[in-house]
């Protein structure tokens, strides 16, 4: 009985640092405000918070089944204009990802300074593409910031709790909400921490 108890204590003491290490290496949370235009008409203007290295998939669906799907990836990159920057990649679909019509694929290196400068000038940072069959699309980045998780290194119990929360968010999947702007649309958000559009927000539990 004594040996079993001793083994249990050793197991807990050796596993706690690994949990703390996992959390201390947790990745930044990126907050983005975007605007998408198709044929010069605004179709999707989401705000999304996504953890670095994760893929966020946002879907805006009309009550008759027509939908737009935005797929986002954010990765940290080297400093740009004297501050931390990020590589943003996306694809915009009319319909479902892969089975729908691909309207645009693009990539940008962004930082808070460059995004704010574009917004102030009236020419938001983004990418305009003339489609062959589906018409022109314009993807714009209106606002951007990043948040670095904080951790008290000497608090092993808190590290364990935070690690459990991070794992829960990572594995929980999607959230959804009905739009509150009278459009009759609905918003679905997968892979991100939270998404907002069309007068509503949803948060991944």
Word description of this protein:
With 205 residues, the protein is α+β, with helices and mostly antiparallel strands. The chain has a domain at 29-149 and 183-196. Helix content is 24%, strand content 47%. It has three helices and 13 strands, in the order αβββββββαββαββββ. The protein has helices at 2-24, 112-121, 156-172, and strands spanning 29-38, 41-44, 47-51, 55-61, 67-80, 83-94, 101-110, 125-129, 137-147, 174-178, 186-190, 194-197, 200-203. Helix 1 (2-24) crosses helix 3 (156-172). The longest helix is centred in the N-terminal third of the chain and has 23 residues, at 2-24. Keywords: Signal. Residues 1-20 form the signal peptide.
Give a quick summary of the entry:
Keywords: Signal. By secondary structure, the chain is an alpha+beta fold. Helix content is 24%, strand content 47%.
Taking the alpha carbons of the first and last residues, their distance comes to 40 Å
What share of the residues does DSSP label as strand, in percent?
over 45%
- The class by helix and strand makeup works out as alpha+beta
DSSP E strands, number: 13
- Give the fraction of residues assigned to helices: 10-25%
Task: Kindly report the average pLDDT value.
Answer: 80
Keywords: Signal
Signal peptide: 1-20
Give a topology summary.
Layout: H1 2-24, E1 29-38, E2 41-44, E3 47-51, E4 55-61, E5 67-80, E6 83-94, E7 101-110, H2 112-121, E8 125-129, E9 137-147, H3 156-172, E10 174-178, E11 186-190, E12 194-197, E13 200-203
Helix pairs in contact: 1-3
Keywords: Signal
Signal peptide: 1-20
